């Protein structure tokens, strides 16, 4: 589908490294689902966009191996990698250009309450048909996760928030 993009946000190695200050608990099931969705999106000919936080200093320095996209999701030749320095995936990036001719966005990532939420709000405000895969999202605790998803659902009625199995039908 040439008019659909899969956007995965913030899925970087430092999120699954237990010694990292940015570690998010129990990442492996989320990563497995993200890999499955990525394979599905490639079969469906979606545009693949991987967004990562990148800053000059550790731990998001491009030289730090933990700042890299999770190895299981490693991009293929036609995948687009967007490096960002703020919570917004659009600010001072080429994301707007990459989404030209795209009407539908399927997304997920981490952390839900920051980078994912900002991304969803920005694409929603730009008029994209957006599906957020809730079990490919995670944040620091269940209360914050539930609040963020509930608030997005209430404040963005056209946004579809579904589990991966629902999306795949």
DSSP helical segment count: 5
The assigned structural class equals: alpha/beta
Can you list the strand order of the major beta sheet? 3-2-1-4-5-6
Mean pLDDT: 93
Strand content: 15-25%
* Whole-angstrom Rg: 15 Å
Provide the succession of SSEs. EHEEHEHEHEH
Biggest sheet character: 6 strands, parallel
- The end-to-end span amounts to 17 Å
**Domain unit count:** 1
- Top-tier CATH class: Alpha Beta
Rough outline: globular
CATH superfamily: Isochorismatase-like
- Which residues sit in consecutive blocks of at least 5 with pLDDT less than 50? none
Helical content class: 25-40%
CATH topology term: Rossmann fold
Write the layout of secondary structure elements.
Elements: E1 4-9, H1 27-43, E2 47-53, E3 80-84, H2 95-98, E4 104-109, H3 112-125, E5 129-137, H4 142-155, E6 160-162, H5 164-168
Parallel strand pairs: 1-2, 1-4, 2-3, 4-5, 5-6
